[in-house]
Write a structure and sequence with these properties.
globular, 13 helices, Na+/H+ antiporter like fold, mainly alpha, 296 residues
Length: 296
Amino acid sequence: MILVMAVVAGLIWGNQAAFFKDWTMFILAFVMMFSMTGILSRSLVPVGTIFRPMLYGVFLNYVIFSTLLIPMAWFLMPDRQLFYGFVVIAATPPGVAVIPFSHILGGNMRYSILGTFGAFLGSILISPFMIYVFAGRDGVDPFQLFWLMIKLVVMPFILSRFLLFSRVFKVVERIRGAVVNWGFAIIIFTVIGMNRQVFNGDFIILLLISIVLFVSIFGMGILFEIYAGRVKLDKDLSISQTLLVTIKSSGFAAVTAYSLFGQRAAIPSALLAIFVLLYLIYLSLRKELKKDINQQ
């Protein structure tokens, strides 16, 4: 509901978005710090069991997702800025929603935590590499990309460890949802507000972006579920892997795209927030429907 309100507010009061544009990096880092408290240190032991799910998190989030997203964006996007926006989405780590929705949908919680953590660690090197490969000819500095990952991934993770101290964590646990939701809402409001003219009139661009996102999220999710059924993957593992292969951090993508390529490149990330939200609602309603059918 908060994200929907942010979208509507961006369309109506978008002229106020300029106030937040210079603060989006700080807001995202703050949100990432709070959201990473969901990755508990005890999930990282025993050490010998963490590498497989971490590597799968990297493989699903970057390799599998990108093989569908990037070619579609290359063929359908009318200009480089929008294509670069999709490159940033492909290079973005999973959304923090992977962990709570793994619990809601009955996934393997430890696997989801480790897969998310592995993808976040991988983003330090993989994200700069992917962006440089597909957009480096436009003068993107690899060191700038690497430093961006340090500020948005490494530093928030280190600071999040201090929030896990028992007395502090009691407070953090109560307010974490609100901080993450409202932080991402401000970012989405800013991106949509600064591109309001596109959302209010350029329906062809919005349609093309929506096609790419719908196929990459809903289509990929359905295909992966079919694959998981064919290879008889455990149900809880299938749920966790499906989330890792479809859910990207829209706030992270929006701030990164805006910082590197300008406000137009952030348009796909603003729509990404909507499609991720719709996909999570779809998964939740589908689970409830199956539950009701089984009870009958």
